[in-house]
Amino acid sequence: MLRILGVIGDKWSILVVGTLRDRTLRFGELHRAVTGISQRMLTLTLRQLERDGLLTRTVHASVPPRVEYTLTELGSTLLTAATALGDWAAAHRNEIENNRRHYDEAHPPRARR
Amino acid sequence: MLRILGVIGDKWSILVVGTLRDRTLRFGELHRAVTGISQRMLTLTLRQLERDGLLTRTVHASVPPRVEYTLTELGSTLLTAATALGDWAAAHRNEIENNRRHYDEAHPPRARR
């Protein structure tokens, strides 16, 4: 179970899978669409998702080669399951940010063990 | 959205929250229940979950002090949302492990760019 949670319990994986919902994208398009991800992290994330069978990587024989990423059937089912969690995150975003602010006020760095 | 996904998109957080479902536990009990987590990672995970308001940390004035962790209402709602994802992971575990095996056979380390 741990190793499977490792797949899906990673924000970049979730964001990349979400970005590929209903569309095929090239590497550069994904890089622009997933705000904040580095090229290296995107490469690693895509390779892991391909290895897990959540997306397919298709190389078209052009010059330069065109490489496209598409969700598999399995990837689409993950997206459905992840929706509840995404909805939760959106609904509780402000509450969590308030909690963090209160915690930081009550636990200044110097007083922490 | 990214920072919130950072909270929940972490396998240790999900496992700790799941372990606290319907019960209060002490640090040592959590450490035994969450297989594979180091003391340091458990400490960091608990602090982050407390900061987010997903659990409360109660220190009882005994010798030695007894420290207990309990999910908050917010933590319980996260658990509900995460259930779909946990069910997905359990249902597709074998499929993903097969995919990984096939990928590794088709992409031996030396042939990889």
Automatic annotation (TrEMBL), chains A, B:
Coiled coil: none annotated. It comes from the Bacteria. One of its GO terms (molecular function) is DNA binding. Residues 1-97 form the HTH hxlR-type domain. Keywords: DNA-binding, Transcription, Transcription regulation. It holds the Pfam family HxlR. This is Helix-turn-helix transcriptional regulator. The lineage of its organism: Bacteria, Bacillati, Actinomycetota, Actinomycetes, Kitasatosporales.
